[in-house]
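Morning run. Coffee first, then this:
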Amino acid sequence: MRLGVLFSGGKDSCYSAYLAKKQGNELICLISIISENPDSFMFHTPNIKKTKKQAELMNIPLLIEKTKGKKEIELRDLERAIKKAKQKYQLQGIVTGALYSNYQASRIQKICDKLNLKTINPLWHKNEIKYLKELIKNKFKVMIIGVAAYPLDKTWLGRLIDEKFIQEAKKLQEKYEIHPAGEGGEFETFVLDCPLFSRELNVVKQKPKGKSNSWKLDINVD
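And here it is:
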């Protein structure tokens, strides 16, 4: 099946693309939505413009659409982007990184139904810890680039998802009910390397911004 990938550069969209390809589908294009609203209900925002670098390493065309990021209204921009991608690349379906968010999944499904596209959700309701372990097993190098929940703080920025991270994530889930995979926006990620890339991305510059338990790490990659 010819698929477009809703692509943020984070672990969920990258791993979903990987699984979709592994299932025998063809990844035809990536679709990134750049939101002016850092607190968008629908879209990942930290370092979203760096998806250009990732797309180059995947050798897959990238379609970019901008949005003001206003709740519900931003869905029109998403629909416009998917419609453009379908027309330009003759897509048959869309891959999403939805894990447990009914808000995101239902709205993407509605758009795809309208455009007569199949929705592919490879991560839907996957066990969070199993998912994190799969990332490591399949050689995904994933960096934490944002946190937004107590007791996560500036010290978590720049960390990689490894076995130590998983063990700490389990404890945070038990004590603070923080989703181990960051599904509630507790943390954001950026993929530096994975089987879909021709080589690893290197972080050449990074700058933390924020306060208390809300931090973002702006990065430059090469």
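The longest strand covers residues 26-35. Good start to the day.
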